[in-house]
Amino acid sequence: MTIPTSGHQLQSRVSSAGKLELWIEDVPVAAPGDGEIVVRMEATPINPSDLGLLLGPADPASFRVEGGKTVADIPPARLASMAARMDQALPVGNEGAGTVVAAGAGAEDMVGKTVSLVGGAMYAEYRTVRAKDAVPVPAGATAADGASVFVNPLTALGMTETMKLEGHTALVHTAAASNLGQMLNKICVADGIALVNIVRSDAQAAILRALGATHIVDSSKYDFEATLVDALADTGATLAFDAIGGGDLAGRILVAMEAAANRKADGYSRYGSTTHKQVYIYGRLDMRPTTIGAGVGMAWGVGGWLLTPFLGRIGGEGMMRLRQRVSDELKTTFASHYTATISLADALKPDVIAAYAKRATGEKYLIDPSR
Amino acid sequence: MTIPTSGHQLQSRVSSAGKLELWIEDVPVAAPGDGEIVVRMEATPINPSDLGLLLGPADPASFRVEGGKTVADIPPARLASMAARMDQALPVGNEGAGTVVAAGAGAEDMVGKTVSLVGGAMYAEYRTVRAKDAVPVPAGATAADGASVFVNPLTALGMTETMKLEGHTALVHTAAASNLGQMLNKICVADGIALVNIVRSDAQAAILRALGATHIVDSSKYDFEATLVDALADTGATLAFDAIGGGDLAGRILVAMEAAANRKADGYSRYGSTTHKQVYIYGRLDMRPTTIGAGVGMAWGVGGWLLTPFLGRIGGEGMMRLRQRVSDELKTTFASHYTATISLADALKPDVIAAYAKRATGEKYLIDPSR
Predict the structure, then answer these.
(1) Which Gene3D superfamilies does the entry link to (chains A, B) (predicted)?
(2) Looking at A309, A328, A345, which one is the last position of a domain?
(3) Which of A257, A258, A216, A239 is nearest to A164 (CA)?
């Protein structure tokens, strides 16, 4: 057992000069204390939830290499909101998987195992963590299989769990052909939950149809509103998870839910239906303001939804139950598909950044820091 | 004891021809059954919550008298949303008070008492109700004193109760110099709850200052945002009740709450503060879409708030506790002030409609149907 003493780590900094800087630094690897392990990272995804920290509010078209760093310009109007991270070098990467290469006292049996990790700074050659925070991948699974077992799987399961916790019986999902959306479809098909998928193209609809999705509505079509109301009336969905965030889509979903609820109403109510209609915004593919128009009635809500507070809400036992399901169905329901596997150095190339910064539906990149 | 057989009742109808029609009809008075009473209505307020049913989406500038009715035009674009009430004559008036003039078996002891009622169709000479649904006014109080004991008092108390139920410790209120806002100030002063009042003029600020309000912020001033963040940081308010609804005010409040929360943050969080920030929209003084801009973080919510579901949430005992407080403080905390007392016939005059349809802050009209 050789304990590595230093390794590469990706750094992101917003400078007060208005630049976003990315570079790879050789940082010391913490020696494993009692109950700790050192993991050589071999697979760590670039999730939409990583891009905010990684690229900040930089103009994606402006990335170039300057003085050994990859830099981009930050529009002046967006610099003010970055005060809290200004001029700090920050490590990036929410989750990943790799091989245990060293261990402290009491964790020696972990050496050689492939484990999944969550918690930041995963875009690095090595991570030292507590052994009890590492989740061994199931037999026959690789680091790539175990790279994305937290963020997307737990978010998708968090949607159906939130549905049950808050008394809804069916769901709506936007940007529905994403990796996450595909997982959610598999969960809903398996669990018998009706799901209305909102997509933006025929190609996206085809992806979901192949997974057995029954309700697919295309927001780019002229009859979107009418089709959506039909799907909502058919499924009874009163809860939506929205990855778009900005613009009028969240409001249009609420208006359609209200119209579907009023189809069943027996008489005029000045306040609209008494059915509570909820949209949770969990992503921001569209950075414009969120607009809620007239016609939603009074029994509605829109709000942010994040995985961490949800996990806090269901507690340790709830989390273990969800993790077990992810492990049991790792190669089926929760399998992730990657567009390409790249090295840490690749992740800093302007043309590669341009590709993953697009957040194109269904495209996802995997970094192998050991390359 | 003479039982009236018919009486005047105000009617509102949206016609498929695109007109709103108001008139007074002589309707039969239901004879009181066992446990029922007949109340001669003497004081019934025109609340903002009555105006939606009363005036519908009519253009307030177009009211005129035609063929014995008061009529107004409905903009064609707004007629579609009225399908559920089309061509139906609807009675109006959420609450009121009057004298019991007749009673069925078992309720004879109520005759002669002044009672408060809630439940619709109060813009009428007589209402037949169950005796147990009528709340006798306290000794020394008149029908005018007892006219507004439900909607505004229970809504104002509902705000502080919701604050406690949902784990907040201070409040924000918009259109804060309204009758409701004045009540809320008295409740908060009495109960030691910090309240940030958002007003739109110096005159409104003066009304609240005279009631002991400590935090008053004027949205018409150039330094509104900065003053609001200071007030939010000072009070720790993370829950707002908004009577405006449309436009960007709800979003600006959330952004200011997030800024106040981040003043206390110790380090950068890419998702913003973890403090949940909530705005409940309980009125629609502004009919434009609600716009939530960037800068709210992820821990936020906006939604509709209505009295009836809130009362359902606190249950019968909770409601009795609130009602008792209203009764105990009827002439102080919960005293309403009326701009004028008018007859049913006055309420149909185009110039009077123009006055009450303005929803001017602090102005409120009382109808005495017995005139």
Answers:
(1) Medium-chain alcohol dehydrogenases, catalytic domain, NAD(P)-binding Rossmann-like Domain
(2) A309
(3) A239
